[in-house]
Specification:
About 60% of the residues lie in helices and about 0% in strands. With about 650 residues, it is an all-alpha fold. It has a single domain, classed as Cytochrome c oxidase-like, subunit I domain (Cytochrome C Oxidase, Chain A).
Length: about 650
């Protein structure tokens, strides 16, 4: 008996590939989300290996694990990889997989642009890491401060050039994805799903997309100017020519501090969806939680110069940015109190997703409190460029973002794969990661207050820093061991995990109303939404208390329950046109990466390129235009019978 998915693929004009080609040419948002997730986790592991090498070097005084030059490359690539290649794209993986399902859509607004965004991300990450194979990786820090990046001071390799060009390619990916999700959320919501009925994860996706659209152009301008300085002999940041290197700091941190919230807001959205499910009660203060996310995004633009208190901006600027930095803690604190209010009095089910959510709240509070300390200019003068700042940012981004993302992985893995992750291994993973994280970063507060500078590759034995560095290194290896537990859990569960069913967590939102994994078309019939938690209300009635379960109503999307087989005949003859798979996005993405990477192929470091540039650039431009041209004339949908 043919299924709806087979019926769709048999339509005349609908291309269908099999095997690996179905993944390479896919425009299905769910498959693209999986590709984003797997790629981001791979880069996360690379960044973790770089961190282990850093910690191994600092485990004891006068370490000799790596050379000073290699250490500079490692801490530069560790920060760059974790922020741009791991945390951001892992959030985008959830945007892709979850948001269309939560808003009752069959796909994102621009499926081919979505595929293009992924392949640009992949090729940009490869271009960035190719620096290891071509004379040396970037070595000026993930922040790229001028004049450390200028040719007179950094001309021994193309590492900085790879960094500049790779980040520009990644910026194209981020902008394409952000516009796509913004349009999808605004235009593709199911009937009746007003903004104040959207799940909080979708809300935070909307806010994050707006931040990306506004923030990345700022960094792009700075990167273009730095590229012109290095490759074409201009002097935007060269102090020898009368330029102001501090201009780069303004460019970078005007992007960089909204970027912190770009990284944390998706995790906040995940937590806001996980807590109501496992406490079996609605989110406490839903409108306040939603609007506090908007407030964070708005206020994020007024705090960037707290990274520059020691740059000499003057007392007025310091006072203003200290005030705005402390004020932005208010909407963040509101979210925390609302999360605690959601748990209060609930029927709490301590499954692994909830454990990671609780870990997020606890660790993020610690990171937030140390952030308020750094918001005070007198304190920052003492703590700036010490390991206290390293501890702060890792409690925010590791204890916050990473714990939040793992809460999402354990929460939505059953929906994505149709199987459950092993609960025992999940708990082991959580406790090992929580213990390892605190072993690694808690002592760094002490190191920072004791004066240990950041970015030093070794230290003498008489400074009193030996113990906490040793403990931090042990903690880093505990984190690495916890990741091995997760990887084992992931692969064994994909193959032999317990079948999840449609609704393993007794969920509240629309994604739990359809089969696991979802069909290609998501919803056989677009649902009509009448309440904030539509699937919960459908299961338990309009009261939403869940005290007495009603007889199952027809599934909101018209899809059948995977366990009882109802609705199979109704789906047999569905006629739902879906977007064609396409190879043009990957061609265009490869062309973009080659066009920029070709600028430095065969070019001696520190030398201005000749014209015309290398054949690689011409090949890349040709592929880019071919991909865009074919993409523009390709039929949007498979024809129906």
């Amino acid at each position: 008996m043919a299924t709806a998915e087979h019926a769709i693929s048999s339509h005349p004009g609908h291309r269908s590939y099999r095997g690996i080609w179905s993944w390479i040419f896919t425009v299905d948002h769910k498959k693209i989300g999986v590709l984003y997730g797997i790629t981001a986790v791979c880069f996360f592991l690379i960044g973790g290996i770089e961190a282990l090498l850093i910690r191994s070097q600092l485990m004891v005084p006068n370490g000799t694990v790596v050379s000073p030059d290699a250490y500079n490359e490692l801490f530069t690539m560790h920060g760059t990889t974790m922020i741009f290649l791991a945390l951001m794209p892992l959030s985008v993986a959830f945007f892709n997989i979850v948001v269309p399902l939560q808003i009752g859509a069959r796909d994102v607004a621009f499926p081919r642009l979505n595929a293009f965004s992924y392949w640009v991300f992949l090729f940009g990450g490869l271009l960035l890491n190719a620096s290891f194979l071509f004379g040396g990786a970037p070595n000026a820090g993930w922040f790229g401060y001028a004049n450390l990046t200028e040719v007179p001071f950094n001309h021994a390799s193309h590492g900085i050039d790879f960094w500049v060009l790779g980040l520009q390619v990644l910026g194209v990916s981020s902008m394409a994805g952000a516009f796509n999700f913004l349009v999808t959320i605004v235009n593709a919501r199911a009937p009746g799903m007003t903004f104040m009925r959207m799940p909080l994860f979708t809300w935070m996706t909307l806010v994050t997309s707006l931040l990306l659209i506004l923030a990345f152009p700022v960094l792009t301008v700075g990167l273009i100017e730095l590229m012109f300085d290095r490759l074409f002999g201009t002097n935007f940041f060269n102090p020898a020519a009368g330029a102001e290197p501090i201009l780069w700091q303004h460019f970078f941190w005007l992007f960089g501090h909204p970027e912190v919230y770009i990284l944390i807001l998706p995790a906040m959205g995940i937590i806001s969806d996980v807590l109501p499910t496992f406490s079996r009660k609605p989110l406490f203060g839903y409108p306040v939680v939603a609007y506090s996310g908007v407030a964070i995004a708005f206020m994020a633009w007024g705090v960037w110069a707290h990274h520059m208190f020691t740059a000499g901006l003057g007392p007025v600027a310091d006072a203003v940015f200290a005030t705005t930095t402390m004020l932005i803690a208010v909407p963040t604190g509101i979210k925390i109190f609302n999360w605690i209010g959601t748990l209060w009095g609930g029927s709490i089910n301590f499954k692994t997703p909830l454990l990671f959510a609780l870990g997020f709240i606890a660790m993020f509070i610690i990171g937030g409190l140390s952030g308020v300390m750094l918001a005070s200019p007198p304190a920052d003068w003492l703590e700036n460029d010490t390991y206290f700042v390293v501890a702060h940012i890792h409690y925010v981004l590791f204890g916050g973002t990473i714990f939040g993302l793992f809460a999402g992985i354990y929460y939505w893995f059953p929906k994505i794969s149709g199987r459950m992750l092993n609960e025992t291994l999940g708990r082991i993973h959580f406790w090992m990661m929580l213990i390892g994280m605190n072993l690694t970063f808690a002592g760094m507060h002490v190191l920072g207050m004791d004066g240990m500078p950041r970015r030093i590759y070794t230290y003498p034995p008489n400074m009193g820093w030996d113990f906490w560095n040793f403990v931090a290194t042990i903690g880093a290896f505990v984190i690495a061991a916890s990741m091995l537990v997760f990887i084992y859990n992931f692969f064994t569960s994909v193959r032999n995990g317990k079948p999840a069913g449609n609704d393993p967590w007794d969920g509240r939102t629309l994604e739990w109303s359809i089969p696991s994994p979802p069909p290609h078309y998501n919803f056989a019939t677009i649902p009509v939404v009448h309440t904030r938690d539509p699937f919960w209300a459908q299961k338990y009635g309009d009261t939403g208390h869940g005290s007495v379960k009603m007889a199952p109503a027809p599934i909101a999307g018209g899809a059948h329950d995977a366990e009882d087989g109802h609705g199979q005949q109704a789906e047999e003859h569905l006629d739902i046109p879906m977007p064609n798979e396409s190879y043009y996005p990957i061609i265009a993405a490869a062309g973009l990466a080659l066009a920029l990477g070709g600028l430095i192929v065969g070019l001696p470091p520190g030398q201005v390129p000749d014209f015309p540039p290398s054949w690689v650039t011409f090949l890349g431009v040709g592929l880019l235009f071919y991909g865009i041209f074919g993409w523009g004339f390709e039929p949007a949908m498979g024809e129906t019978e």
